[in-house]
Specification:
It is built from 3 helices and 9 strands; from the N terminus they run αββββαββββαβ. It has 180 residues and is of the alpha+beta class.
């Protein structure tokens, strides 16, 4: 056979090929589901640590907090639901300045239930930030996969930006089962 171009690589011997291997993703650890969602005109995809997807309003120099959306993925063990995630969110918000919380929101998107809350808090640099958070879950044995959608905008732009954020949420499509 041919020799790999990179000397650090080498072909596996027949004996090594017979050694059992694991892969990721796998049936046992499938990882986050593939997803797609609308990218509105005037927005762009960006990289944000610990997110599957992040999009933001393009900076046109207007000097306001840029509306943005992130989708994160995490897992819990045992019985964990969308309303449980909303309860955790309430605890996170308690540490913020001037917290406002409107919970127990639910929306069905493409046959999947998302549980969420609307909230606001004061950021020392950006002023009041309005957010919507929605969670959807899928259980596999003792593990619960959780997708967390967050849409954020400046509080003074909520009337203008929240309809766009809501449209993005309603556009999410997951390649997975129905969810809880």
């Amino acid at each position: 056979g041919s020799v790999p171009a990179d000397p650090r690589l080498r072909w596996r011997t027949r004996e090594e090929s017979l050694v059992p291997q694991v892969t990721y993703p796998s049936r046992v650890v499938p990882g986050p589901p593939p997803l797609r969602m609308e990218l509105p005109d005037g927005w762009e995809q960006v990289w944000v640590p610990e997110t599957l997807v992040a999009i933001v309003e393009k900076d046109t120099g207007a000097g306001h907090f840029l509306a943005n959306v992130t989708v994160r993925f995490f897992q819990r063990v045992g019985a964990f639901t969308g309303p449980d995630a909303v309860d955790e969110l309430r605890g996170w918000l308690a540490d913020k300045e001037d917290p406002q919380f409107e919970g127990d929101k639910g929306v069905e998107v493409d046959g999947r239930m998302w549980h969420g809350a609307h909230l606001a808090f004061r950021d020392p640099n950006a002023g009041t930030i309005g957010q919507v958070h929605f969670f959807t879950t899928a259980a596999e044995n003792d593990v619960v996969d959780v997708l967390h959608f967050t849409g954020s905008c400046g509080g003074d732009r909520a009337q203008e930006d929240m309809p766009t954020i809501r449209r993005i949420l309603e556009s999410i499509r997951l390649e997975t089962g129905a969810g809880a």
